[in-house]
Amino acid sequence: MTIKLFDLIGADDARPFSPHCWKTMMSLAHKGLPYEREGVPFTEVPNVEDGISPIVPVIRDGSRIVADSFLIADYLEETYPDRPSLFGGEGGQAAARLVEGWSQTSLHPALGVIALLEIHDRLAPADQAYFRSSRESRMGKTLEQVTEGRAAEIAGFAARMQPLRHMLKSQLWIGGSEPLFADYIVFGALQWVRVTSTAQLLDAADPVAQWFERCLDLHDGLGRSVPAASA
Q: Where is the GST N-terminal domain (predicted)?
């Protein structure tokens, strides 16, 4: 039975952009598992599988429903052990938690500021209203006030990638000799902005940019199947 993936979309169903949903798409492709997407706008997420989760991704695999990208990766690893591993063992699974923590506490806050208004503008009207209200309530500022720091975040973003840049001196992937879920965590963050924003964050000669290009080519170019954002 084909797995069903609920992922986040804006006004264009063909441009999924959530960093967490991209982790799950890459994980399913890594495992070689067929799946079908159902795009869900922000205002419809509470209706997914009778409200099982306030966020997506959510997958249905037969009778099993799993939410949260890391828990989905854990589920796929446990349920399909005969397919390529997402973690390469218990140590890789634990290390992926560290990568997730770095991504969500260092990369996501900056990327959220950089892409905030462009994400808003790519949503359908009802979702724009929800997005503005929820983000402004959370941040205590208007979207426009938050993005006053956009130029500074763009200028400083390359420095945030130094831990990965240092690692890439000795290996091609965060996973070592091959990509693992840890790679998909950071890929998802950068793909989020690639799909929603025209901001240029990394020089083409940067080892991190080259790693990201390799990620885009994985799984028959799954990442490239959604073109980069244009003005």
A: 8-84
